[in-house]
Amino acid sequence: MSGYQPQTSQTADSSAIDIHSRAVSYTCGDCDGDVQLKRGEPIRCRNCGHRVLYKKRTNRMVQFEAR
Amino acid sequence: MVGPKVRRPYPQLISHLHAQEPPKPRPRAAPRGAKKAAPGAAGTGATQDAGGDTQEGKRALAEDGMDVDRPTDAADKTRRQKAPLNSSAKDEFAAMLEPFYYGKSLTDPIDTARDKWNLLPAFLKVKGLVKQHVDSYNHFVDVDLKKILQANRYVRSDLDPKFLLEYKDIRVLSPNRAEEDNLNGHYKSTITPNECRLRDMTYAAPIVVDIVYTRGSSRVRRNNVQIGRMPIMLKSNKCVLAAKNDREMALLEECPLDPGGYFITRGQEKVILVQEQLNKNRVIVESAKGIMQASVTSSTNERKTKTYVIQKKGLMYLRHNTLSEEIPIVIVMKALGVLSDEEIFVLICGDDAEYQDKFTVNFEACMQAKIFTQQAALEHVGHRVRLTKKFGRARNYHLEAIECLANVVLPHVAVEGTNFRTKALYIALMARRVIMAEVNPNLVDDRDYVGNKRLELSGQMLSLLFEDHFKRFNHDFKLGIDKVLKKQNRAQEFDAFSHIGALKNHITLGIERAIATGNWSLKRFKMDRAGVTHVLSRLSYIAALGMMTRISSQFEKTRKVSGPRALQPSQFGMLCTSDTPEGEACGLVKNLALMTHITTEDDEDPVRKMVFLLGAEDICMQTGDEIHREGLYSVCLNGTPIALTSTPKSFLVNFRKLRRMGRISEFTSIYINHDFCEVHIATDEGRICRPLIIVENGRSKVTARYLKALRKGTMEFEDFLTRGLVEYLDCNEENDTNIAIREKDIGQYTTHLEIEPFTILGAVAGLIPYPHHNQSPRNTYQCAMGKQAIGAIAYNQFTRIDTLLYLMVYPQQPMVKTRTIELTKYDKLPAGQNATVAVMSYSGYDIEDALVLNKASCDRGFGRCQVLKKTVVPLKTYANGTSDGIDDKTAMQPKNLADPKYGAIGKDGIAQVGARVNQGETYLMKAVPSDTTTGARGNIPMKTQEMRYKLPDPSYIDKVCITENEAGTSLIKLLLRQTRRPELGDKFSSRHGQKGVCGLIVAQEDMPFNDQGICPDIIMNPHGFPSRMTVGKMKELHSGKAGVLRGTLEYGTCFGGSEVLDMADVLVKHGFSYTGKDYLTSGITGEALQFYVFFGPIYYQKLKHMVQDKMHSRSRGPRAILTRQPTEGRARDGGLRLGEMERDCLIAYGASQLLLERLMISSDAHNVDVCERCGQMGASGYCRICESEKGVRRITMPYAAKLLIQELGAMNIKVTIGLEDEFGKGGYDYEA
User: Fold this and answer.
1) Partner of B108 at 20 to 30 A CA spacing, among B194, B705, B824, B864?
2) Is any Cβ of chain A less than 8 angstroms from the Cβ of B956?
3) Domain boundaries, position A32
4) Are B914 and A43 in contact (CB < 8 Å)?
């Protein structure tokens, strides 16, 4: 089976503790800028006002089976 | 990029096949060779000439003889300098991106016979493939909208006679977001269609009006008052994509090859299909059940009614819905003011004795009714007028009759003042038609004739819709102001303007809803059509294109009549002869041919003036005797006779001359009908027409000179029209012409020349190479399958988030292409791959069209595709103020971190991009409030709802898009990706209706190979050929093989393409057999195969039907609640049905135990206590009816049967079960 390994609990612990600083970074669909978004915030790029945001690619390892 | 002087035909997707081929010395004139040697042509040297028109195949030989007037490279430079003349050549890439006259360089000699087809790309450049839709929409927005406003200009109040609101002007602004509506001024919206797709918005623009209204005692003018929003058709003149070049399109994340012509409502792409209808305002003579009738469907802005003149038992009547009974024709004529019997007689019959004999009886009917005056006739008619409203006072029959005859019967024939002459003439004409058809049955009209059809496009559909909504808007507006005006003393001065704002949603939502659902319900015309719009199919580029050219018919599909389904000879060149679905919609759904244009409405008045200027006399001034006199022809404008001419031929010629000079709209058609002695002029909308080259004095008017100018870019298609070299002909006018197919066919009487014969096919059928060598149904099959092929969708395919998207990983343009492929740009967004095919038998896994695939080819990417599926999760807001959210905590809790179920979830509770999800794993942690109904304020606890991935095969998260729609609801769109390689059972098809599934995947080592070591990608069974008769496929292989060897792309254009003999020459030159057959060695035994094998490239499409989406099995599983039988369908993990026919087999065979097992035990066996005595069901061994336990027996029966008995009981039908001992005591307990 391929796939990625679940993250070790080390980093997750710190984020689980601090709820208020858990801003997730997204990419704006128009200007490609970085958008830090917290829960419940309006979905909007702070730079250009575009309302389509994309999630960034995972930084965890992804393993593909070549066939 | 290559040097500027080298015009590469195309970015070669299949370059590895032939790119390294050294340029072959070929007999070719020096200048071309010199051009070929331009630096930087590396690797494509040979292909430089590839695009050279290979259509007739013998090009090299033919051109050698004609290299006379050869311009120098200077001419080429002028082409470059003049390029900016073309609107599309805005950046330096445009010239390369738009290889306009494919592969033909400016310096190439022009042969009108062959190069006249250059007009076709010129036509498509101006008109586009879906220009009909865009033209129609533009006409609606620019012209129709203003007409509708004009017709509904005033709003008055019942209460205040001084109040008057007048609409001055109406405009549709440029598209914006709904929230930007109030930002007036010079705000320029940055909205793009793609944003609308992603955000589930409607791509619309504000509709604004200028109004002048009464406020107090003054008149107030307000400009730019918004009354609603109009959905904008993509690529129409209001769209942001209009007149954008490729680079600007890329900035807007839009595909430059996308045809446009559709709407985006609520994020969905919606097409308003072209509707086919019988033409309006024309007399149609039909005979049904021995009754001859002439009918007219009149359609004006105010009314839509149908009027008949029928012949019943030798007598003629007028029939109309508002008349309670049929009225004898003579009475009607008298009511219309034609008083003398003589005049009626002559108006209808002329001096033809036979017609007179037939008609004479009708006077008797009038006599018997004792009607001799107009007054009496009107009374007679008035008595039979159905009243819409009941009036208390006595009816004035006389006036009612006048009103009815003037406005309700044949409303399209205008009555000016009290001049009923036009209407009388029209009814006389209808009556005459009936008599003529009675005498000569050949004159009965053919409803299926394309000239009697009109196509209704999106503009017309929208204009009906808008008018309805606008009328309702005005009505609601009036009610609103009346309500305020009713109050005697108001606090402040009344301003009607404040009421408009409240109503603008009506128009916006009404139009949006109609387009989104496809339900066109208009009260006024009693129209209630469903399925007018469809979601644009984005399976492949060609599927989307095919949808835009589709025409749906109004006939019901259930009727088993062949007439409307049959191929009409008049379809030639207008509607595609091949592209129609199979099955129930066969022949009812059609497609436009490549060069068709659908007319928009033109103004009648200038044409009417022209008719009289050309010497025709007003028909109202003429007596019946004159109208029907020998040699006199009446001139009809849109079906209504308006004038009379004694020189029809010269009238016709002069009229056409004026049209060719551009004095009248080029879409006006004129033709002569000798049967009825009529000249018909049509300016109405929805006629199908196509351009043809004009031939005069046996010579085509399009000469080499003009073609050269066209190629140089100094002339465009419009110039050909204005110079009278090319003209549009509609179906009726085609009948007056003598069209030569090829230039050599031009004879003494030829009037027109076909631009290109292959344009009788449409865009989808145009993909087929050598279709003229195939059996016709095969081309039809391919038309259906070409739309299912997986390929490239659009240049912006990776920015789209569609519900379902199939993409091919390595698409290739076909080796053997057609002109249509180039024109539709299919070669830039192809859907298939050039597979090397060996036509031979191999193993037993290739029977019944199964294909044997090469495993190594699949490893290298043959048939590899991606499937992208969308999941949208809207975060809803509920009535009590609570709303959905995302649970970002659960998955991050330490105990869950190791849980593979949450493996894909990121910090925000949404799956990570790039993560893999297996069956049962969560991709979104949605949090739903536990209470969504009560108004409980405060902290409502949230429940976590995990969105789980259901499919058995894993996917990767391709994209996660977080956005907000217009209503402010957050949307989370996840795109899941699967990459699939071909597997057993995947469906493939060539371009000749030859589909097959993969039957076996063989290791390359076991594949046969030729002396160069080439292995086939596909082995196809030769049994596919004899019965299917797809010779085109063989020719494709043959030409394709030659093309591979020579390093060129060959052409298989319909009625043209590379010739077999030329291709055979190429094969021989490269050391292959001229037949295309190769000597192969078996990969299994190493022995030479005992036969030569037909071997070469064929373009194969992978179709969307893949086993992975269909594979299904179940042993035990879920059951339906009601019947307790296994569920149905793969999605519900359903069982496999043993149907009626299978059951019949088991019954016939007598396999009773198997039957019992399949139909009951494995399905819905249920134990019931049945009372032997009363035959009713009891419970727990006790019968309630008999009040005893004595007769109760436990039996097993299907639960569905038990349910039926109880349901019947609920309907008061008693069912008794009779029990009988068969095997004695000691039953068998089946359940559980």
Assistant:
1) B824
2) yes
3) 20-55
4) no
